[in-house]
Design brief:
With 285 residues, this protein is α/β, with parallel strands linked by helices. The chain contains nine helices and five strands; from the N terminus they run H-E-H-E-H-E-H-H-E-H-H-H-E-H. The protein starts with 32 loop residues before the first helix and ends in a 37-residue tail after the last helix.
């Protein structure tokens, strides 16, 4: 892969914590698998506790995940929901807007997916598409872009005033790491579906995407709902850092319900039809 020279400040520099234990990382500087496995198991237990607490207290939580392609948004969302109930922790990943939606108020199609009491909604991309992907790819006019930058902070403040807790994460990945991940997807047929034309175009316009991020932060990094940046060149470390931070945003307590008594089968006089009358899948295993 040819080395590319980016303008000064355009790349997402890799950032690491000052207090991390060097013994937890391999020779490439990535978090060791056994360390990750142990911590993610603990965090899963805490996420389940948080889920019960949100359901019991009626909290309304909106978590937004933004960032470049392959930055790890989907990976952390998958780990957050791996042990939680989809009735309480819900993923929102909207497709391209329909022709009708394109004529609506820009924020309108997202409103229907906001959390109700006792729900945490995870937005895999959101209305911030307008100042990022849409602006980078030329899918919106400059007038629409400027209007969004004016309106988005007020829209979010309105959500916060209504009682919704809004948490925003930006997953940051360097040009070199993004290149490596795209190359790995391209080489693996089972993962090639993850490499879209939009990803390729975005990678080519990496510097413009840096401009878009900087502008988005300038206008929408508000005190009521600040942006939290998650450096993600090390995907496993990024997942742990993000989930640990998410948990720290709530004064949750352990309200896990106690074990229940499993009832015995109620007696009922009933004779079932013969099993051979049912159609079974081929039993090859």
């Amino acid at each position: 892969m040819a080395k590319v020279s980016l303008p000064e400040g355009a790349n997402e520099e890799r950032v690491v914590g000052d207090n991390r234990d060097p013994s937890n990382y391999n020779k490439k500087g990535k978090l060791k698998g056994e360390v990750y496995d142990q911590e993610i198991e603990r965090l899963h237990e805490e996420l389940v506790k948080l889920q019960y607490w949100i359901a019991e207290t009626g909290e309304r939580v909106l978590v937004i995940f933004e960032g470049r392609g392959s930055a790890g948004k989907g990976g952390v969302i998958k780990r957050i929901t791996e042990r939680t109930s989809p009735r309480t922790v819900r993923i929102v990943a909207l497709p391209k807007p329909t022709e009708r939606e394109q004529t609506q108020w820009y924020f309108q199609r997202y409103v229907a997916h906001l959390p109700a009491a006792g729900e945490m909604c995870l937005f895999d991309r959101s209305w911030y598409n307008r100042s990022n992907v849409e602006w980078v790819m030329g899918f919106c006019s400059e007038e629409d872009h400027q209007e969004f930058l004016r309106s988005a902070p007020e829209f979010v403040r309105m959500l916060v005033r209504s009682g919704i807790k809004v948490i925003k994460y930006w997953f940051s990945v360097s040009y070199e790491e993004q290149s490596a991940r795209f190359a790995a997807r391209n080489a693996e047929p089972l993962k090639r579906w993850k490499l879209s034309d939009m990803d390729l175009a975005e990678h080519e316009l990496y510097v413009k995407y840096s401009m878009a991020k900087d502008t988005t932060f300038q206008y929408t990094d508000i005190k009521q709902a600040p942006w939290y940046v998650v450096p993600s060149d090390d995907k496993k470390a990024a997942r742990l850092n993000c989930i640990r931070h998410l948990l720290s945003q709530f004064p949750y307590t352990d309200v896990t319900p106690p074990e229940v008594e499993i009832p015995t089968m109620a007696k009922l006089d009933y004779i079932r039809p013969p099993m051979h009358e049912q159609t079974f899948v081929p039993l090859e295993f």
